[in-house]
C-alpha cells in the first residue's frame, strides 16, 4: 500500500479495479480546506488518460512492475516482435501497447514494462530521443517565410513524417523526441 505522498511519475497503481500509470501529479494545499493531489492517470489497457483528484493521505494499491530491456526485431500479422536482451526470449506484443510505432526501427533498444505478478507486458517505452536520416523533404528557400520558426514536413527512414526547420535537407540526420514526434536538433 502506498499513499498520495509516495506518488511519482511512472508509478503504476491499481484504481477502480484497473491498472493506471501516473503521467503527472501535483500536490495542492489550498488556503482553506484539506490538501489534495491532482493527477493524470493513463489506463494501461485502453491507453486513455483521465484526470483524477485524490485526498491527501489516501492509500492506494501500488502495482509491482518490472522494466526489462528488449530489442525490436520485426512486425508481422501477429504483432510486433521483441527479444529480451537478457534471456534472448522472443515475444509478440500488440500494437496498442506501443505508444509510437511510427518511430520503431528494427534493432532499436526499448524498455518493456511487465506486471510482476502476472508476467504480462503492459507497455513498450521507446528511448526519449532517436536519431534518423531524412529520406525526403522539399528544399527550403530563403525568404519563404514571414516568421523565424517556420517548419516543413520531412520523411525519415521509418516512413514517419516530422515537422522540421527549413534548413534541414534530404540526407541530414535529425534527433526526434519520441513522446510527441517533434524535431529536437540536427545531428552531425
Describe the structure.
This protein is mainly β. The chain folds into 3 domains: 61 residues, SH3 type barrels, CATH 2.30.30.30; 61 residues, Nucleic acid-binding proteins (OB fold (Dihydrolipoamide Acetyltransferase, E2P), Beta Barrel), CATH 2.40.50.140; 59 residues, Beta Barrel (OB fold (Dihydrolipoamide Acetyltransferase, E2P)), CATH 2.40.50.140. It is 0% helix and 54% strand. The strands form 3 sheets. A 6-stranded antiparallel sheet has the order 1-6-2-3-4-5, with no helix packed on it.
Q: Which terms summarize this structure?
A:
188 residues; mainly beta; SH3 type barrels; OB fold (Dihydrolipoamide Acetyltransferase, E2P); 3 domains; 16 strands; flat
What's the architecture of the largest domain in CATH terms? Roll
Main beta sheet: strand number and arrangement?
6 strands, antiparallel
Q: pLDDT average, as an integer?
A: 90
**Fraction in beta strands:** over 45%
Helix content: under 10%
Helix run count: 0
* Number of individual domains: 3
Label the structural class: mainly beta
Number of strands: 16
- Low-confidence segments, given as residue ranges, are none
What shape does the CA trace take? flat
